[in-house]
Amino acid sequence: MKAKCSKWLTIFSLGLAGCMAAKAQNQAGVPGRITREWKDAAGVSIPCQIFLPLNYEKARKYPLVLCLHGSGEMKSPPYTAKTAASTALLNPSLRAKYPAFLLVPQTTIGWVKRPERKGNIVTAGLQSEGPALKLVMQGLAEVMKEFSVDADRVYVSGQSMGGVGTWSLILHHPDIFAAAVPICGVGDPQQADKIRCPVWDFHGAKDRTVPVACSRDMVAALKKAGREVKYTEFPDVDHSSWVPAWAEPELAPWLFSKHRAKLP
Questions:
Q1: Do the domain assignments include residue 261?
Q2: Which of 39, 86, 104, 138 is most buried per CB count within 10 Å?
């Protein structure tokens, strides 16, 4: 399964993995929306939409959900990217039930570095943090300092290329996230033991863009490492598994119930 999975990984470096993502819509009319832009010395820029909790009060601490888009949003105008997670959590009923900060950053270069390959085996690079994710983490730190964010309830979810970014973030920052929801992404099973937060992974069995073996391998590796992991595989779904994933009624309650574990 690992060989079958790895031969598809260059899809992400070419920016095609999110080709079936929904067309971006400007959400400027959503109450509590502000925008920021984070830049590094090399000129990499990450526009970001920040959605404040409904009826935000500075004296109260709120959870935060970092939402990573797929490559279908890479060519969208700045500050218009959306994800299945942000769309679902901006639904008025969920927004009222689970008031939270939503961060929706946007990249034009991808979330991870281009993987190095030897035949069908990825040898390095996939899980290396590229400049986009480094800026996202810098921006996350700034938001947490400026606003009333509950540091023990910071979550991340991403679809397709954003699923790859989700696996990368929880691998490299095991002390930050309380839970993660990667959807049809690719992780590194050989480093699964470094992941500490609970994970609920989703994938479509008929995915021809990112083979379902990618999720099956990660879930098996996490279970072997004794980590908390849930896995939902949709038997008749293709690459767009983020649609039924965020229609799962237990997902939001599961996510917001999680608190950051204290690492040894």
A1: no
A2: 104
pTM of the prediction? 0.88
Q: Which stretch of DSSP H or E encloses residue 92?
A: helix 92-97
Handedness of CA 246, 63, 21, 208 (dihedral sign): negative
3-state secondary structure of 102: strand
Q: Which residues lie across from 39 on neighbouring strands?
A: 45
Q: Has residue 24 been placed in a domain? A: no
DSSP 5-68: HHTTTHHHHTT-TTTTSPPP---TTSTTEEEEEEE-TT--EEEEEEEPPTT--TTS-EEEEEEE
Domain tally, the chain: 1
The CATH number assigned to the domain holding 50 equals 3.40.50.1820
Give a yes or no: residue 61 inside a domain: yes
Q: In angstroms, rounded to a whole number, what is the distance separating the alpha carbons of residues 156 and 171?
A: 12
Token output for 50: 């920040």
Which domain does 153 fall in, by range?
A: 2-14+29-256
Residue-wise pLDDT tens digits, 28-66: 567 799 999 999 999 999 999 999 999 999 999 999 999
Tell me the pLDDT tens digit for each residue of 184-229. Answer: 999 999 999 999 999 999 999 999 999 999 999 999 999 999 999 9
104 strand-pairing partners: 49
17 HSE (CA, 13 A, CB side): 30
